[in-house]
């Protein structure tokens, strides 16, 4: 049974393991620094093992930005990302923010749409090689 936890601050090594399984490479940044500045993060656990993660960054006002939705390959297509995203939406709303942003690749539009996001245009620049 998977369990969802709000902002449990997982150890750096745990997050790094999930990140490599999800994205195929090490994160290249320090999670402690990221989590210290975020509004909240949401984790999924299977038998006390971290199998899902997302982060909500915050501008200090009414905007949050959902980042890094990650589910371990062994646990996909079981609704875990949906539960992580729904928890992030509910918690961000409860914290009084007005807007929650996200961007994603085209094939994930149905996932985010089902969780309540409508599509907008957005922009992105890669500032460093890597
Ligand atoms: C994208 C990701 C987080 C989805 O996690 P998940 O737990 O499998 O997602 P869910 O089970 O909640 O999926 C719900 C729905 O989303 C859609 N979906 C999920 N993964 C999909 C994929 N790879 N391709 C197309 N649709 C997908 C489907 O509509 C799915 O419903 P279905 O299983 O009934 O078909 C996971 O595949 C992942 O970590 N991918 C690599 C990292 C990534 O791209 N993250 C997204 C950042 S925006």
How large is the radius of gyration?
Answer: 14 Å
Main β-sheet description: 5 strands, mixed
How many β strands by DSSP? 5
| Cofactors and ligands | coenzyme A
* End-to-end separation: 36 Å
Provide the β-strand percentage band.
Answer: 25-35%
Share of residues in helices: 25-40%
Order of helices and strands: EHHEEEHEH
State the strand order across the main sheet.
1-2-3-4-5
Low-pLDDT parts are: none
Query: How does the overall form come out from the CA principal axes?
Result: globular
What is the average of the pLDDT values? 96
Structural class: alpha+beta
Number of helices: 4
Quick structural gist:
The protein has 130 residues and is α+β, with helices and mostly antiparallel strands. It has 4 helices and 5 strands.
Report what the structure shows:
The protein is α+β, with helices and mostly antiparallel strands and 130 residues long. 31% of the residues lie in helices and 26% in strands. It has four helices and five strands. It has a five-stranded mixed sheet. Strand 4, helix 3 and strand 5 form a beta-alpha-beta unit. It is globular, with a radius of gyration of 14 Å. Coenzyme A (COA) binds at residues 22, 69-71, 76-82, 104, 107-108, 110-111.
């Amino acid at each position: 049974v998977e369990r969802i936890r709000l902002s449990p601050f997982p150890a750096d090594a745990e997050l790094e393991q999930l990140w490599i399984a999800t994205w195929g490479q090490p994160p290249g940044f320090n999670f402690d620094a990221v989590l210290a500045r975020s509004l909240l993060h949401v984790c999924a656990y299977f038998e006390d093992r971290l199998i899902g993660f997302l982060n909500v960054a915050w501008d200090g006002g009414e905007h949050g930005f959902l980042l890094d939705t990650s589910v371990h390959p062994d646990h996909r297509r079981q609704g875990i990302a949906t539960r992580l995203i729904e928890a992030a939406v509910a918690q961000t709303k409860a914290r009084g923010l007005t807007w929650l942003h996200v961007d994603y690749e085209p094939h994930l539009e149905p996932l985010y749409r089902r969780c309540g996001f409508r599509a907008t245009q957005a922009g992105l620049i890669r500032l460093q090689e890597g």
